[in-house]
Each structure stands twice: as C-alpha cells, then as structure tokens.
TrEMBL record, chain A:
Catalytic residues (positions): 67 (proton acceptor), 78 (proton acceptor)
Organism: Isoptericola cucumis
Family from the record: Belongs to the TrpA family.
UniProt keyword Ubl conjugation present: no
InterPro entries: Aldolase_TIM, RibuloseP-bd_barrel, Trp_synthase_alpha_AS, Trp_synthase_suA
Name of the protein this chain belongs to: Tryptophan synthase alpha chain
Entry EC number(s): 4.2.1.20
TrEMBL record, chain B:
Pathway in which this enzyme or protein is active: Amino-acid biosynthesis; L-tryptophan biosynthesis; L-tryptophan from chorismate: step 5/5
Location of N6-(pyridoxal phosphate)lysine modifications: 113
Co-factor requirement: pyridoxal 5'-phosphate
Source species taxonomy: Bacteria, Bacillati, Actinomycetota, Actinomycetes, Micrococcales
Protein name per its UniProtKB record: Tryptophan synthase beta chain
Name of one Pfam family that matches: PALP
EC number: 4.2.1.20
Entries under Gene3D superfamilies matching the protein: 3.40.50.1100
This protein's UniProt keywords: Amino-acid biosynthesis, Aromatic amino acid biosynthesis, Lyase, Pyridoxal phosphate, Tryptophan biosynthesis
Family that this chain belongs to: Belongs to the TrpB family.
The keyword Amino-acid biosynthesis is assigned to this record: yes
InterPro entries noted in UniProt: Trp_synth_b_CS, Trp_synth_beta, Trp_synth_beta/beta-like, TrpB-like_PALP, TrpB-like_PALP_sf
Subunit organization: Tetramer of two alpha and two beta chains.
Its biological purpose: The beta subunit is responsible for the synthesis of L-tryptophan from indole and L-serine.
Length: 298, 443
C-alpha cells in the first residue's frame, strides 16, 4: 500500500503537517486507529438559523469533518433527498455568501478542531469569483471546497486560488475512472480524494458499492494519501464496513433525511439527526478493532 | 494606419489564420466556451464517445450508412423553397428582397432533429450500447430519438418535464407509440432544464449500457462539436442549393436559437464566407425587460450549466433563472458554447424575438405560403422580416435571405389555435377577425 508513512501530526498543531487542515484531521484520527466521519448538510434548510443549529448539533454528535452543501438549482450529482432540501433552502432565500457564516460558526464552535469543507457546484463559485470565494472562505475559517462537477482538467483557476489561500481542494474519482485519471486527480487534490462508491447520485443504498474498496486501493496506488468514500452510506454498520478500508466515510442523504419531515417538531428532528450521527460515529469507531493508537495504517 | 473596415478585415483574416476554418473548429473549447463541467464518473464515457465519433466520421461504412438513411428514411436533401408572397412583407414588395426557406420541416419526424439522432443512434450501435436516454422539451427531440430507437432496436427512455408532458400530450403519446418510455420529471421547474438534470443522473448511474442522446449543441465535450457535425449537412445542402437558385450566396442567414443546433447546422457552411451575415434569433418571450424570456445574449452572462461554459440566464449567486417562451423548444436558460464563441467573435449576431412577433410571422407564413412552421422556426421568420425592414430602411434592395425552417408546426396547432382565438365557436368564427390571443394561463 502506498501513501503516507503514518506519522500523524497532533490535531492541535498550528501549521498543518500535511499542508492541509482536513488532511491533518484525518491523520490524527488515523493515529487513533479509525476513519473520519464526514457529515454533509445543505445550508439554509429548512432556514439559515435552524440550519446552523443542525450543523452544530451534528458536530456535537460526533462528525469529524463538516461538509456544507451549497443549495443549487441544478444539482445533477444529487438524488431526491438532497434535491428536495436544496429546493426548499433556495425557496427560503438562502444566498451563496451565507456559507461563510456557517464556516465561521463551525470554526468558532469547535475552536478550529473540526474542518468545514464547502460542497459546491461550480457555477456558484464562478459567479462569486473563484479567487474572491477562496479568499473569503479562508478568512471565514473554512477548510476547502469539494467540487462535484469540476474535474482537475477544468480547474486551473481553482487550483491557483486554493494554493494562494491555503484551502483544501477535494476532487472526485469514480469506479469508471481510468488509472491515468486517478493519477491526475490524486495529484491535483489536497486534503483527500473523494471516491464515489458507486456509479450514481447521492442517496441511501442497501449496499455500498462493492467496487468502493477496489477504487480506494486503486486511488491510493495512483498516489493519493487519503481517500474517503461517499454515496450510499446511511447506517453505522455501513460506516463500519467502509471505515475498515477508507480514510473517511462521507454521509449526506441519511443525515438530511432526519430533518425533512415538516410535521415533526424541530427539536425532535435535531434529536433524530444526532442519533443518526452517533450511530455513524460508533460505526467508524468499531471498523478496525485493535487498531487504536498504533499510529500506522494497518 | 488602415481605416476601420480594412482593420476589421485584417483582424478577421488573422482570426482565420489562428483558428483555421471556423467551420472545422474542434472542442473541447470554442474560444472561452465549452469544456467539460461534469462529474468525473462521466469522463470515461465522454472520452469513449469522442474517440468513437471521430473514428466513425472517418469510416466510410459509417458515413455511407448515415447517408443512405438520410436519403431513404429522412428524405434528404431537404428542399429549398422560395417564398415570394411572404417576401413581399419583408421590407416591402418594392424592395425586391428574396426569401428562401431551408425545409428541415419536411424531414421525417418533422424537424432537423433527426439529423443528429440518426448519427448518434448509429454510434450507439457501434459502441455496443443497448439503451438510449434523451431529454425533450416540446417533444421533437424525444420523438426523433424514439423513432431512431425503434428503427435500430434500442431501448429508449425520454425524460420530459411534467409541465411539458401536459403541454405536449400528443407528443407523449407519439413517443409511447414508438415504444419509448416517457418519464415525467417532477422536480425543479419541471421543464427542459430539469429533464436534462434527470437524464444526466440516469446517465451517471447507467453509463456502461446507456448512451445519453443529447439533442442539441450544448453539454460537455464532445457533444457541442459532434452534434454540429451531424447537422452541418443542413448548411452544406443549403449553400449549394442557393448558389444554384439565386446564383449567389445569401446576404444573410437567419435561424432560431434555443440550444442552437439548427442554427449551427446552417451557419456552419457560411462561417468562412465573410460576406454572409449570420443572425440567430432567441426567444424574447414577453420582452427582455419583462424578465420572462430566453434571451441569453441580451439578458445573460457567461456561466456553467449542464457541462459547458456558455451564456446563461442566472442570478447574482449563479443560480439558474427560469426561462420563458411561447415555444418550448427555445425555452432553455443556456445556449450552445459555439454560439457564445461566434457571438464574442462578432461572427454571428443574436437578437431576441418576442412571442408576439413570432406568432405574427407564424400566421403570415401560413397565410401567404401554405406552410405551417414550428413556433420555434417562426422566430427565425420574424427575424427575417426584421432584417428585410432594416435593409429597406438602410437603402439596400434585392437582398437574399436564407431562413432555416427547422420544423413543422403540427405540434403547435393547439397553441396557435388558442393564441389567435380560433378554437371558440368552431366553424363560424372567421379566423381573419381573430379575437386577439388568449390569456396568459392558456399559453
């Protein structure tokens, strides 16, 4: 297995040892013998105030890295759950610049311990201005951006801006990616590479794609230091399964779903979100029995 | 220092030297536009498609089969029809302007769409895929895709916004008759753009067996270039036909522009004829100032949608704005990247035509020439009327206008009937004394 030597930096170290805030966080967890839990919520759902509450509640219940979704009118990588939430958030008037508030809130709430990545379809960043967005996100305490519809081939401006402002850039790989593209994407990414477990859009699935484990291995062999898996994970058991071989487990729709039902009181929805998060957090903690504190990848 | 026209000519010839023939520019970029802004999961399929399509265009077995189908099935070459009675309204009879229509409406399935669909469907067979998916707005591309799928024995699923399935119920039935599954899209604005989102989601999940038979010159590379290649036959035929009939090149070419495939198809043969002025007419809807339109060049700005960077209707945050047009085929918030390139290069001019102008031109062609055009194509006809008036005002006479009549209007009879109030008191109502067009809700 290629990749890092496993000499992880302490999480509270001032300068990122990996050159990446998210990378440092994942390495620290690796030293504890487990994968990171990365939790996604769209900002502004059901409204900005309550959505800040939800993000912080998710953090308190045990996510290690936050993924802040920017609602977009045309989310082609998202399934029905996230589409519905995004549509409602936009109808509620959420603005692109609101994401900065969320990054600030997470940074303040956790003293910078939990990195906040923005997940954004590319046109929203383009319209804001690639460099201004990177500058403002970094100033707000954000860690970087996940770009589901931007491939490194099209990302020259973003690569320059993220370098200039010290942000992570998370590109995706998929089971259909060729070895050549895995290399290209691994080299262009900072923080981690996002491996789509299956060919498809976001949403809970009975089984996480069986090609996910192979894709993680292939992506590491192509030079990636950290590979996290998303698409389809919804339960603690699935998180435990994926956490066995991946450096991080990314969960979105299963968390969003706990907030969707308008007829349930908000406090009960937050409880459901925290319970779901705790179950997933437990999953990543029991994924590699006996690996704790060894400080190296098994 | 040379004077302005000479400098313009120098700039233009420099552009030709740098770019080669404009008609042959290859993707992924047309100037600053185009690209591949899609999930990584699709890149392998796009690469395969690009490789296969380039190989196919160089393979006489492929081009021969496509030419045979066009001859025996599509009915190509489509005729060029001069329309003198219509031309009398084009800047006044005394100005002596001549108008020629390229009759893509006479193709099998009733529009230019079949050119691209047959080309891609043959490619699907070559690639060994068994299933095609497509988006459709008014249903023209969906019907053409369902037709090719029936002919070539492919499974076919067509995504159509729920609102459009209701507006175009007959085309839904037509697609189902042809064996296609029609899936109403119930998310977002429930129109063409949302149908494309849903088709892209299907494609990501099923890309190993499925080809996305995209219907216009938009989308990620190689679609904008490939779809242009399958439609360039329109302009190539038209150029030959008008040289024979008018004895010279046209002064101007007019086409409607939604995604822009019919326009690019006819423009392409004239791109390197500097004297021929090219006009694309977009849907001005209820007027660009009303905010209810699909005039990307008047009311939009460059941005990314559905895999390509191009002019786009978007708000300050980059969220896609809803478009509006009486014609479903022009009702799309972005436009093919090659058009954005031609726009910025100054090689083609793009102007909005309102719903009202288009419907007047629609009726005029019906009355003067016995041809019922698609409402989409009526935007090009309205544009030609405007060009004729402008020429006359500027003292130019005897202009030759070539208009791409991209589709027939059978599908639009119900819309036109309501617009002109022809459906009330059927049989006694004098269509000449129309009661004005119907109310907003009826459109």
């Amino acid at each position: 297995m290629s990749g890092t030597t496993g000499t992880a930096a302490p999480a509270d170290m001032a300068a990122p040892a990996t050159g990446s805030r998210t990378g440092d966080r994942i390495e620290a967890l690796r030293a504890e013998g487990r994968a990171a839990l990365i939790g996604y919520l769209p900002i502004g759902f059901p409204d900005v105030e309550r959505s800040v509450e939800a993000v912080l509640a998710m953090v308190d219940a045990g996510v290690d890295v936050v993924e802040l979704g920017m609602p977009y009118t045309d989310p082609v990588m998202d399934g029905p759950v996230i589409q519905r939430a995004a549509e409602a958030a936009l109808a509620g008037g959420v603005r692109a610049r609101d994401v900065l508030r969320f990054a600030e809130a997470v940074a303040e709430h956790t003293g910078g311990r939990v990195p906040a990545l923005v997940m954004s379809y590319w046109n929203l960043v383009l319209r804001y201005g690639v460099d201004p967005f990177a500058r403002d996100l970094a100033a707000a305490g954000g860690a970087g951006v996940i770009t589901p519809d931007l491939i490194p081939d099209e990302g020259a401006d973003w690569i320059a801006a993220s370098d200039a402002h010290g942000l992570d850039r998370v590109f995706l790989v998929a089971p259909s990616s060729t070895t050549e593209r895995l290399r290209l994407t691994a080299a262009a990414s900072r923080g981690f590479v996002y491996a789509a477990s299956t060919m498809g859009v976001t949403g809970a699935r009975e089984q996480v794609g069986e090609r996910a484990e192979q894709l993680v291995a292939d992506t590491r062999a192509a030079g990636a230091e950290r590979v996290c898996v998303g698409l389809g994970v919804s339960t603690g058991d699935q998180a435990a399964e994926v956490g066995r071989y991946a450096d991080g487990v990314i969960v979105g729709s299963a968390l969003v779903r706990t907030l969707l039902d308008d007829d349930t009181p908000w406090a009960a929805r937050l409880d459901a979100l925290q319970a779901r998060t705790a179950d997933l957090a437990d999953g990543v903690r029991r994924a590699r029995p006996g690996a704790a504190s060894r400080g190296t990848r098994s | 220092m040379p004077d302005q026209p000479v400098r313009d000519a120098l700039t233009e010839s420099l552009a030709h030297q740098v770019l080669g023939r404009l008609a042959d520019v290859q993707g992924p970029y047309f100037g600053d536009f185009g690209g591949r802004f899609v999930p990584e999961a699709l890149i392998a399929a796009l690469d395969e498609l690009e490789t296969e399509y380039r190989k196919a265009l160089g393979d006489p077995a492929f081009t021969g089969e496509l030419a045979r189908l066009h001859r025996e099935y599509t009915g190509r070459p489509s005729p060029l029809t001069e329309v003198p009675r219509f031309a009398e309204h084009c800047g006044g009879a005394e100005a002596g302007h001549r108008v020629f229509l390229k009759r893509e409406d006479l193709n099998h399935t009733g529009s230019h769409k079949i050119n691209n669909v047959l080309g891609q469907a043959l490619l699907v067979k070559r690639m060994g895929k068994t299933r095609v998916i497509a988006e459709t707005g008014a249903g023209q591309h969906g019907v053409a895709t369902a037709t090719a799928a029936a002919l070539l024995d492919l499974e076919c699923v067509v995504y159509m916004g729920e609102e459009d399935t209701q507006r175009q119920a007959l085309n839904v039935a037509r697609m189902r008759l042809l064996g296609a599954e029609v899936v109403p899209v119930t998310i977002g604005a429930r129109t063409l753009k949302d149908a494309i989102n849903e088709a892209l989601r299907d494609w990501v999940a099923n890309v190993e067996t499925t080809h996305y038979l995209l219907g216009t010159v938009t989308g990620p590379h190689p679609f904008p270039e490939m779809v242009r290649e399958f439609h360039r036959i329109i302009g190539e035929e038209a150029r030959e036909q008008i040289l024979e009939r008018a004895g010279r090149l046209p002064d101007a070419v007019a086409a409607c522009v939604g995604g822009g495939s019919n326009a690019l198809g006819i423009f392409n043969a004239f791109l390197d004829d500097d004297a021929v002025v090219l006009y694309g007419f977009e849907a001005g809807g209820e007027g660009v100032d009303s905010g209810r339109h699909a005039a990307r060049f008047s009311g939009g700005a460059p941005g990314v949608l559905h895999g390509a960077r191009s002019y786009l209707l978007q708000d300050d945050d980059g969220q896609t704005l809803p478009s509006h047009s009486v014609s479903a085929g022009l009702d799309y918030p972005s436009v093919g990247p090659a058009h954005s390139w031609l726009h910025d290069l100054g090689r083609a001019a793009y102007e909005p035509v309102t719903d009202d102008e288009a419907m007047e031109a629609f009726r005029l062609l019906c009355r003067t020439e016995g041809i019922i055009p698609a409402i989409e194509s009526a935007h090009a006809l309205a544009g030609a009327l405007r060009l004729g008036r402008r020429a006359t005002q500027e003292g130019r006479t005897g202009q030759v206008f070539l208009v791409n009549l991209s589709g027939r209007g059978d599908k639009d009879v119900a819309t036109a009937g309501r617009w002109f109030g022809l459906l009330d008191d059927a049989g006694t109502h004098d269509a000449g004394q129309d009661a004005g067009h119907a109310t907003e809700g009826d459109r």
